[in-house]
Write a structure and sequence with these properties.
The structure is a homodimer. By secondary structure, the first copy, chain A, is α+β, with helices and mostly antiparallel strands. Chain A contains 16 helices and 18 strands. The first copy, chain A, is about 35% helix and about 20% strand. Chains A and B meet through strand 9, helix 7, helix 8 and helix 16 of A and strand 9, helix 7, helix 8 and helix 16 of B.
């Protein structure tokens, strides 16, 4: 019964770290966007991987579902329990040590509960770069980043979290501790378990530690905002920038005029970069390992070529760190401005980069036909083919009322994504939020393979049930 | 019975492509290094993925083991059947179409049986680069590269084959065709099946197609050979080169003086780069997206810094493509010179880059204690922590006689690799060759996870049996 299981938990990790009072438990139950609140039998706060293993063994023995949780900043209801109250939340936040930094191997070994920002800082203190960067970096944990294969603004040059990880430590669904903390660039000795746990959202086991890749710190970064006539021109500029700037191009973000106007409306103190409005804007970030002069030269070359080719309508180059921050602030304030404007229907989609303009044109038209005047707030990581394609109601329709169409809107957008051979979750994951949509967009054979793996590695079905599958 | 199964095969793919005569079959049975010859019930040569699926369905129904085969250039006896004669060889060589090239998305979709060199050429013809490059590129297939997660000389900058693949098409062990040919930089919609099949050496299914990443073609490449006092100095130079040259450093190979002398002995027509001998040599390759001048400047800066720091004893910079080829030729002739010198005991190991010098020192000493005068022919991809650490007998001991100690030599080298947290197969895979060694170096929990996955995806055990597990 309940008491026996919790008594064992208390014995293992100390009574102070087994939370059962409502007031203590509730902060662990609600999803980041505040749309969902689950229930839990308890919150368990182990101190180290061995305690995690011991707790999962207890959960397996007592058939108690386990919901691993990091910073609880996920956007797909992946790290909070369902409403049954049967599950325990396994918080990894006390596993927060940076275990080792190796300057020659360019690796850092960390606990899963380390905050991303702390990892970035530790890399910087050692004269290196950990390039994962995203809005929640001040509170998300690396374990959560790994479990969801988080993306962010550095993917164009450095890849997703998956590409930034060399090795993992994992507690299996049986409560065994697997030490896969390898710091190797090459290792072909069997199945790639690392990449199976990465992105599995805690449904196959609990990530407790990782070996991360570090990179030489660039000597200078420089930012520009280029005004463009269309999404198609933004694609042409991306190609031109990659050819001109090569590997120094580290970021390429797209924002529509709708986005800039929203930011201007809700954050009037942020400077507006251009005197006139333009249909689209691309934010370019260049990083040089040589000098600031080098980055400036390549950026100027890129912009000159774009102006000559008739691609750019206007451009501003940040000439100071403050100006660069101001340009990025516009991009970063889009989700905040949207939230201030009222609830909207969000999508995190990707298509092949070459098809983005066609996707946007076609999907805009489909939505306008269904809801004349509908507002599309489209921005994101164009260099990765990843857009946040968010939908707000036509002027005059209350935001809350429009949410009733969420299912219909999702259907139109995601069907269109499928038509363009894209993904309905580019960087956020599936969680509970998109679980029911998955069977519509995945072939039966792929779902069968996923289910076979789930059944093989978690035969009791206790790991984060109700997520993904 | 035999006849019925083969009759079905003939019906499916045509009698001409079901080979059963000894003379037709035997070219498919021997391993690349000529140490092993298996037997097969037949060789099946399907024309397309649908035929592959149909054949695997037949094999599953008749419980016939399947050995997928590409260019048969693998080095660990992974693509040839065992001696039972029960298995069929499934040759992918007729699946050799380049299906599509997308210049904006920077992707190429290919059949698994495409020759690597043909893919490189097709990328070049489209003004782009497919950076996978290895000795067997003229005859290996991309399907084999994927199945073994091949490495090569471009890993430092571009990653292993795994990092160069966005999507896969696979025939499962049940003979179902999974279309995972996604050309997406970001896709977080469930378990990472792609990376599970990559590196699985055909033991979980048959790769029939892939979406590959392409890169902008560098405008210039430049090569230098730097003479060094020790392996430790080679490590310090690597760090210095990465800091000075940043992402333009695309190759960093190590060769010992023993290697250069072997090449000089067997290929006296190749120019020797230095008037004096030095303990170690590093081959540096820089690629610039800007200009040749840019690459030259960064290379000269690197070498000047290395000379000033007392790291480099001497250096030559190639000032023409012919000179660059001559420097690479030395590196590429090491395995050939070794073969000409007589059979030796090969290892394909990796350790964390920071520990390479310690590993070499310690392992050299262990071997010298066991076999005084033993020759270590050590070279490889130092930038990836991957060495080919090959052992030849002391002068006077016949090479063939020394092979009797192969098991003892492997034990010393691989135990030492394990002491340094390394891998006993960095880029070649496990195959049948290293299968029996795996349990010594993998934890039980990892082997159990691998076996659970194998049983889940290939419950009949028909996919390339006797390989890896």
């Amino acid at each position: 019964m309940t008491d026996l299981f919790l008594a064992h938990c208390r014995e293992l990790i100390g009574a102070d770290h087994v939370l059962t009072e409502d007031a203590d438990v509730s902060p662990y139950l609600s999803d980041w966007r505040g749309r969902y609140m689950g229930r839990a039998r308890a919150v368990l706060r182990p101190a180290d991987p061995q305690q995690v293993a011991g707790l999962v063994q207890l959960c397996a023995a007592h058939r108690v579902p386990v919901v691993p949780q990091g910073g609880r900043t996920g956007l797909v209801i992946g790290s909070v329990p369902d409403e049954s109250g049967r599950a325990v939340v396994l918080s990894l936040r006390r596993l927060n040590r940076i275990r080792a930094v190796d300057g020659i191997n360019r690796t850092m070994t960390v606990d899963a509960g380390c905050i991303l920002h702390d990892i970035q800082q530790a890399a910087g203190a050692a004269g290196m770069l950990f390039p994962l960067s995203l809005a929640a970096e001040g509170s998300c944990t690396i374990g959560g980043n790994l479990a969801t294969n988080a993306g962010g603004t550095g993917v164009l040059r450095y890849g997703n979290t998956r590409e930034l990880c060399l090795g993992l430590e994992v507690v299996t669904a049986q409560g065994e501790l697997w030490n896969g903390l390898r710091g190797l660039r090459k290792d072909n000795t069997g199945y790639d378990l690392r990449d199976l746990y990465i992105g599995a959202e805690g449904t196959l086991g609990v990530i407790t530690g990782a070996v991360l890749k570090l990179f030489p710190q660039p000597k200078a970064g420089i930012t520009a905002l280029v005004a463009l006539g269309s999404c198609r021109d933004a694609l042409a500029l991306l190609k031109l920038a990659q050819e001109t700037a090569g590997p120094t191009l580290t970021g390429y973000e797209l924002m529509s005029d709708v986005c800039l106007r929203l930011v201007g409306k809700h954050f009037p103190n942020l400077p507006q970069p251009f005197p006139q409005t333009h249909p689209q804007y691309a934010l370019l970030e260049l990083s040089s390992h040589e000098s600031e002069q080098h980055a400036v030269r390549l950026l100027e070359e890129t912009i000159e070529n774009a102006l000559e080719a008739g691609l750019a309508q206007d451009a501003v180059v940040a000439t100071s760190i403050a100006q660069s921050r101001a340009l990025w602030a516009i991009r970063e304030h889009i989700p905040l401005a949207q939230a201030a404007d009222g609830k909207n229907i969000k999508h995190d989609i990707s298509v092949p980069i070459s098809r983005i303009a066609d996707f946007v044109e076609k999907t805009d038209a489909l939505l306008a036909r269904a809801w004349p005047g509908v507002q599309v707030v489209c921005f994101g990581h164009l260099g990765d083919g990843n857009l946040h394609y968010n939908i707000a109601p036509p002027a005059g329709t209350p935001h809350e009322a429009f949410l009733a169409y969420q299912g219909d809107v999702n259907r139109i957008v995601h069907d269109s994504v499928a038509d363009f051979a894209g993904s309905i979750s580019a960087e956020h994951g599936i969680g509970a939020l998109k679980r029911d949509e998955l069977p519509r967009y995945k072939a039966q054979v792929e779902l069968d393979l996923m289910r076979a793996i789930k059944a093989a590695l978690d035969p009791l079905g206790i790991m984060n049930p109700g997520k993904i599958l």
